[in-house]
Design a protein that fits this description.
disordered C terminus, alpha+beta
Length: 592
């Protein structure tokens, strides 16, 4: 360092030491490292600010002489303590660090230009009768206010008020052109904050930049803004390239492995945001509205990455479970897990987004309330959708059928191909695909043919009324032997069953009832065909016959009323036909 620069640095150090003496404060190393700053009264808060600010100023002079990681860490630790003297409750959490650090610089520049205040005039903890200090104190002739926090984690502490924090940039702009009236190493500490960089950027390199690079964009030198933009652009390009590669590689993988490799994309996105926030941005040290915007952007990227990762992680867990040998992909458990994955992924991502929104200053309680009201309105507008969703849940819970089952629902039937959260798809025998809302399906009487263990053969045969009792008894015995002899028919107490069940209008009804030991519909149809053909052969080889539906119609008249008329009308050579055996049947003539 040139001798003139060394002389200037020495002068600043001596001036800072003198200001410490004048302020009656001690350096941080004279204080216990775990001792918090005193905020028990307006006077204590004011004195704590002056003390920690002198500590920062002395540490910065040493850091300017020789940059080091330890020196930077000491300055940032002191700055964190100084930020604790400001009520940042109105500032979004994502930007509290930047706003608080800026407030420290603004306030110090303002105070060194204001007349000294008599410490005795500042309310302290030594008030009469042990009363608490005043809840509010204004720096004389200014609107700088220290107030008592009434609620929250820091209730009872005296801090610089939120209104003061919000107006400090304006106060700084109005007073910065005035000369300092108190000893200070730098006439514009806020400018030093803006130009501050970490050990990654040596001062020699920064001072070698053209003056145009120091032009500020939204409170940040243009070279810092350009560096941050280029780094973020590079990171996003790398992540985009990785995402494309992951999509290409995943095409040949199983679903759970494809999700696992996809999960690396949001993971890299989160790592990039965290690395920028904790490692790179502190080295560049952005400031002003540009810094606030970058911090908000970083929080948005981190929140989006975490929500994306939560979404994929839940699906990954479900796919890994379904891929295990214990669960079939077309089983109820698998489809129930898929439904839970959809709901769980949405809830997890929404929770992350609500938390991230709170970090950006959007109240989570208000957001949740808004979502609740909006959700209620949406539910009322989409009542059928919600009803179908619960219908799907009830189907999964009751398990009346599963994928691949042949069912009858209402007057229709078909094979179940998909059970979704809103509807189910059923393929009919003619190949048509029917989409049935789950709410309707849950209300119908559903017969699941695939769930039966055996099939029932139950038919009624009509024999001719001319069949004699002896022939009928012999034929019934033959029926029993024929049915029981079939290898697919189960035999047991009372089964198979062959009985005369009724004398119909034109037949003697015989019921054959048997249990076919198969759940396969095609096998049952073959067995049923063999049994029916066998019955027909037995009937054909006997003296009985299968009855055909028939009806006899009798036409009759009152014999007494029409007998004289019939005799008178009868002429020689005519043929009279009289229905005999029928009471009151009237004779009719058929003339040649």
């Amino acid at each position: 360092m040139p001798s003139s620069a060394g002389t200037e640095l020495l002068a600043r150090v001596l001036l800072t030491a003198l200001s410490l003496v004048l302020a009656g404060q001690t350096l941080a190393q004279d204080r216990h490292p775990l001792e918090p700053l005193d905020v028990s009264s307006p006077r204590a808060t004011y004195d704590s600010f002056v003390s920690v600010m002198r500590e920062i100023e002395a540490g910065y002079l040493s850091y300017r002489a020789s940059k080091s990681v330890d020196g930077e860490g000491d300055i940032r630790d002191a700055l964190v303590r100084a930020r604790a003297l400001f009520d940042l409750s109105d500032v979004p959490p994502a930007t509290q660090a930047e706003v608080g650090s800026a407030s420290v610089g603004y306030l110090f520049d303002v105070l060194v230009r204001l007349p000294l205040v008599d410490p005795g005039t500042i309310p302290g903890s030594d008030v009469a009768d042990g009363d608490e200090p005043a809840a509010l104190w204004h720096y004389p002739d200014t609107e700088i206010t220290i107030h008592r926090v009434e609620e929250g984690e820091r209730a009872g502490a005296y801090l610089f008020s939120p209104d003061t924090v919000a107006r400090l940039p304006l106060f700084h702009e109005l007073i910065i052109d005035l000369p300092p009236v108190r000893p200070t190493a730098y006439s514009n500490w806020r400018a030093e904050q803006v130009g501050f960089t970490g050990p990654l950027f040596p001062y020699d390199l920064i001072e070698a930049l053209p003056d145009s690079f120091e032009v500020q964009v939204l409170g940040t030198p243009v070279w810092k803004a350009a560096v941050v933009f280029l780094v973020w652009a590079g990171l996003l390009l790398v992540i985009l390239a990785w995402w494309r590669a992951v999509r290409r590689w995943g095409e040949a993988m199983q679903t759970h492995w494809r999700l696992a490799i996809k999960l690396t994309v949001p993971a890299f996105l989160c790592l990039a945001a965290l690395a920028m926030r904790s490692a790179f941005l502190p080295q560049v040290n952005l400031s002003g509205p540009f810094a606030e915007g970058v911090h908000i952007w970083d929080s948005i990227v981190l929140t989006a990455g975490l929500a994306w990762a939560a979404w994929l992680a839940i699906y990954l867990v479900v796919e890994a479970i379904v891929a295990s040998p214990t669960i079939r992909e077309d089983s109820y458990d698998a489809h129930l897990l898929y439904l839970l994955a959809r709901v769980g992924a949405f809830v997890a991502a929404a929770a992350v987004l609500v938390t991230g929104a709170s970090d950006l200053g959007i109240p989570s309680l208000g957001l949740v309330a808004g979502l609740s009201v909006g959700g209620l309105a949406f539910a009322l507008a989409a009542q059928s959708t919600v009803e179908n969703l619960f219908g799907g849940v009830s189907i999964f819970a009751d398990r009346p059928f599963r994928i691949g089952d042949f069912i009858r629902y209402g007057a229709m039937s078909g094979t179940v191909e998909r059970i979704g959260p809103r509807s189910s798809r059923i393929r009919g025998a003619d190949g048509s695909l029917t989409t049935v809302p789950n709410a309707d399906l849950a209300k119908l009487h559903v017969t699941n043919y695939a769930a039966r263990e055996k099939c029932l053969f139950n038919h009624v045969f009509g024999l001719s009324c001319k069949t004699t009792p002896a022939d009928l008894e012999a034929l019934l015995a033959q029926f029993r032997d024929h049915v029981a002899a079939h290898p697919m028919v189960e035999t047991g107490p009372g089964m198979p069953r062959v009985h005369v069940v009724a004398l119909g209008p034109s037949s003697i009804d015989v019921e054959i009832r048997a249990t076919v030991a198969t759940a396969d519909w095609g096998t049952f149809l073959n067995t049923q065909e063999e049994l029916i053909l066998g019955v027909m052969r037995l009937v054909d080889g006997s003296r009985a016959a299968l009855a055909l539906p028939s009806q006899t119609v009798y036409l009759g008249r009152d014999r007494g009323k029409y007998v004289a008329e019939d005799q008178a009308r009868a002429a020689p050579g005519s043929i009279s036909v009289i229905a005999t055996g029928v009471p009151d049947a009237r004779a009719s003539e058929v003339k040649p």
